[in-house]
Write a structure and sequence with these properties.
Length: about 675
């Protein structure tokens, strides 16, 4: 069973309302079956405490005077540079550089966002935009250099995919404008627009001579936080799997919908919640997601920070710290007419009823949604080499379980509600606030506090100190300095280093050859060539049950790399060139042959990975080819079948996610430790 998440609506609020109502309907049915009542009137707000620090009014005036002095100095510098610098300067760019240099000296998360960055942040926060649902990028040659044309790297289900667009298509024009030499962001702007308007595109498809034309209607494109939910393994075991890849405003609603569908007939015996490569998002969404698993009234997270009382009412209204029913009680924070003074705040967020629209009123959805008897396993990871988004081979980033994901994982671990499997997470225990500034749509994002898990630990792994060159320096907390806290069952957990898993499990890492091929889009380019040769049967093969990448296809891929990537530059080539130059300058030119021999040997080792890592490379090539024909959910379910950390196809492997979710005794053993003197050495470091 795969849950259909192809939901469409006018805006993000509508989609949230829709999935909450559907989740609520299913949950009410389950509640009636199991004799539980879950409907009441209203929810209680989080508990907020503020400890004001008495300030000296004279000192406050001196601070304001210093700020004005610095502003005047900055303005004077800008005027002099604009009027007297040897070349004309871009004042906007210069100012933005100054802002970012100032803010980046504090921590990596405090930054100035121009109009474009602010709009992108809005898309990430609300999880939608007006457009057609395409992922585009410029392909690269064997040297990693961008080519002039625009490739369609992916099409979203329910949008451009349903209209017939596929990965591998080459975009030629948008509304009559040739896009060949345009930057990707400019082409993206042409495709986006007000919902209800139309856009005409012309594109070519590999293997088809005729240019294709299509008129697409722009709509609100919903970026799903839950791309996949399904039952896995033996049907009788009743084990579900859900992938949560973000925390936008509708994350909890999407997750609630999937869980309600998975347990619509009967409670699940186990559920695997996959938080790998989830970099986080809204604090409020993390709290609402936790509501789905944690009993009502239990702590989820506590935030602590520093505020200026006279600005609290306006600032926190724009912050992640106060939205909807989680809004801070401002009456506790400030009184009108008071002088500005520094205050500290502490807000405790608990699992609370979620108010859901029902006609002209609202009903309270009482946590938890997931049946308390269901064994919950959470997958987490740290920074790995991977690709961002779907399915964009040209976009390479490092992601991990971080921020809002760690809030959820930390709450579940501290309350012994889930077994955490994987690697120690990133360790981001800081909370940021967005605040609009100026009149042009710009904003700043700055750190306003730290968060603490229910046991009292802050999992922030690094401290930030200003370095001598003005840039922020980082310093990891030593293991010996980390404090020990305890879960509800008395299990020891540590602060200042991310969420350490209950069962440590290292994922397989890609080989150097696979990384290099990915970096140069070689998998994607070969898949496009394969598509040209399989115009008639390609789609049937990609949707079929048998592997597309046979031994013959793999050999063809090797030949393609050797021929088309003849200028293939290995990961060490530039370093060896620098070594050769240094040797020449030092008068050791006779060592040139040794360097060349080393280069040949390294190249041989690199290409030898075609045999050494054959299985992994074939798997990646299989996905690349199928991505040209099938939607994201199919690719994710296909990848899950071979996931070494889930392993629902290998039931004999212990301490994998599926085995833990299936085995009640082993699950309880992991969560049942009560000896506070238990060693932490078995935990991941």
């Amino acid at each position: 069973m795969v849950v259909n998440m192809n939901l469409q609506s006018k805006d993000r609020n509508d989609i949230s309302k829709t999935v909450w109502n559907q989740a609520l309907s299913a949950f009410i049915a389950i509640s009636l079956v199991f004799g539980q009542s879950h409907l009441e009137a209203k929810a209680a707000p989080p508990q907020t405490k503020v400890a004001p620090v008495q300030a000296n009014n004279v000192a406050a005036e001196e601070k304001n005077s210093k700020i004005e002095e610095k502003v005047e100095l900055f303005a004077e510098i800008l005027k002099d540079i604009q009027n007297l610098y040897v070349e004309p300067v871009d004042l906007d760019k210069l100012t933005e550089t100054g802002f970012n240099a100032m803010l980046s000296s504090l921590d990596p998360y405090t930054e100035f966002e121009n109009v474009q960055a602010a709009q992108q942040m809005k898309v990430q926060t609300f999880g939608n935009y007006g457009g057609v649902g395409l992922v585009i990028a410029k392909p690269k040659n064997s040297k990693g250099e961008e080519l002039p044309y625009i490739n369609i790297m992916g099409a979203f289900e329910g949008y451009a995919f349903d209209a017939g667009l596929r990965a591998g298509d080459v975009l030629l024009s948008v509304n009559g404008k040739d896009v060949k030499d345009l930057p990707v962001d400019k082409v993206s702007e042409l495709l986006k627009g007000d919902p209800g308007t139309s856009v005409k595109i012309r594109y070519s498809r590999p293997g088809i001579a005729e240019v294709q034309e299509q008129e697409l209607k722009r709509r609100i494109v919903l970026l799903r936080d839950v791309p996949l939910g399904m039952m896995i393994g033996d049907e009788a075991e009743k084990i579900g799997y859900v992938k949560l890849q973000g925390f936008s405003s509708s994350a909890a609603a999407e997750l609630a919908y999937v869980i309600s569908q998975l347990q619509s007939k009967s409670p699940l015996n186990g559920l695997i919640l996959d938080l790998r490569n989830n970099p986080g998002g809204l604090l409020t969404s993390a709290i609402k997601v936790s509501d789905l698993f944690i009993g009502e009234g239990k702590d989820i997270v506590t935030t602590r920070g520093r505020l200026i009382e006279s600005n609290i009412a306006s600032d926190t209204a724009k912050s992640e710290l106060s939205q909807d029913e989680n809004k801070v009680d401002k009456s506790l924070l400030t009184k009108s007419g008071q002088k500005s003074k520094t205050s500290s705040f502490e807000t405790v967020y608990k699992a609370m009823p979620i108010l859901i629209p029902a006609g002209n009123s609202r009903v309270a959805f009482h946590p938890p949604l997931l049946d308390p008897s269901t064994r919950l396993v959470v997958l987490v990871n740290k920074v790995i080499w991977m690709k961002k988004g779907f399915p964009a081979p040209a976009s390479h980033v490092q992601q991990n379980t971080a921020s809002a994901s760690e809030i959820v994982a930390g709450a579940l671990q501290d309350h012994d509600r889930a077994v955490i499997i994987g690697e120690t997470t990133y360790g981001k225990g800081l909370v940021q606030q967005l605040q609009k500034i100026g009149k042009g749509g710009t904003q700043i994002k700055f750190t306003v506090g730290k968060y603490y898990t229910p046991s009292g630990r802050c999992i922030q792994s690094k401290t930030y100190k200003e370095a001598k060159n003005g840039f922020v320096g980082t310093e990891a907390t030593a293991i010996a300095e980390r404090k020990v806290f305890y879960t509800d069952n008395g299990r020891p957990v540590r602060d200042a280093g991310g969420i350490e898993p209950d069962i440590a499990m290292q994922p397989a890492q890609p080989g150097q050859l696979e990384k290099e091929l990915e970096k140069r889009d070689t998998f994607f380019k070969f898949a496009t060539e394969w598509q040209k040769k399989h115009v008639d049967d390609g789609e049937a093969l990609a949707k079929g049950p048998l592997p597309v990448v046979t031994d013959e296809v793999y050999k063809e891929f090797q030949r393609y790399v050797e021929k088309e990537e003849s200028e293939f530059e290995g990961p060490f080539d530039k370093s060896l060139e620098l070594m050769q130059e240094a040797l020449d300058q030092a008068g050791y030119g006779e060592a040139k042959n040794d360097v060349q021999s080393l280069q040949k040997h390294l190249s041989s080792l690199l290409m030898g990975e075609f045999d050494k890592n054959r299985k992994d490379i074939m798997k990646r090539l299989e996905i690349a080819i199928r991505q040209h024909y099938v939607p994201e959910s199919y690719i994710l379910s296909l990848s899950l079948a071979d996931d070494e950390q889930v392993c629902y196809g290998h039931l004999t492997l212990k301490e994998k996610a599926y085995a833990i979710a299936k085995d009640g005794a082993q699950y309880q053993t992991v969560l049942g430790v009560t000896n506070k003197d238990a060693s932490l050495t078995s935990r991941a470091n």
